[in-house]
Amino acid sequence: MNTLSDLLYNMFADRQPAEDEYLGNDGLIYCAKCHTPRQARVEMLGKIVTPPVMCVCKREAEVNAETDRKQREFQERVAQLKADGFQDKAFLDYTFANDKGYNPEMEKARLYVERWEEMRENATGLLLWGDVGTGKTFFAGCIANALIERGVPVLMTNFARILNTLTDLRSEERNRFIDEMNIYPLLILDDLGIERNSEFALEQVFNVIDSRYRSGKPLIVTTNLTLNELKNPADLAHARIYDRVLERCVPLRINNRNIRKDNAKVQMERAKALFGAT
Ligand SMILES: [Zn+2]
Q1: What pLDDT digit, counting tens, does each position of 23-75 carry?
Q2: Residue 31 C-alpha to ligand 1 middle, in angstroms?
Q3: What structural domains and CATH numbers belong to the chain?
Q4: What pTM was computed for the model?
Q5: Which residue among 4, 219, 229, 261 is buried most deeply as judged by most CB within 10 Å?
Q6: Distance 55 CA to ligand 1 centre (A)
């Protein structure tokens, strides 16, 4: 009679050890590498059958392969987020790893990343202000890279680029463009205040800032303007932009030491040492 147990028995009964296997004292087939069984012995409907099982080393290899696959997938996602989020390739190099330690404020960039969940929840942004060449964009870029490396989508762009795009779009497409920027959990806008002071430009900058404000998501802005200039704008059009920014973005003065000048100075010192000059 051909019962299910006969069928199973016959299926497994003829299995012979392969090259990397041996027959154990208990009659089961063992892995020659990890010395654990590749067969189990179970009773089924009154018959003993020996279905295949994974030996320990095979199981470990599968777990490792799965971990590798997940890691690879994550790295691919990070690469994709960087390609999507950085509109300037130079931002890719703005990382904590590349920080030369000139700027004592950088600790605050690390703090922002560490406390990201809280920042996101409370829509807490930063307003990075200070002179040209003090590393505001670098500061913001480090936050962007660190968060992206954790899998958080960040868009980092600048007002000039946004205005160029908005100028080229039909008015009904502008809102969609602005809404798309607000999909990102963190938006970083470089160089507030250098835009043309036309009515159109100011209106669009306000729309960008205001819709971000209403999205309830954080915004990081850099500017060459002083905090005093932001707090005392020349007219209403500027006031309503800056008020929104100041309401959600913690103003941080980025050290007004000029990093570009410092770099030049270091290079000059090195060159002098090279030629033995004093
Ligand atoms: Zn094994």
Answers
A1: 999 999 999 999 999 999 988 888 888 889 999 999 999 999 999 999 999 99
A2: 5
A3: 4-53 (no CATH), 84-263 (3.40.50.300)
A4: 0.79
A5: 219
A6: 5
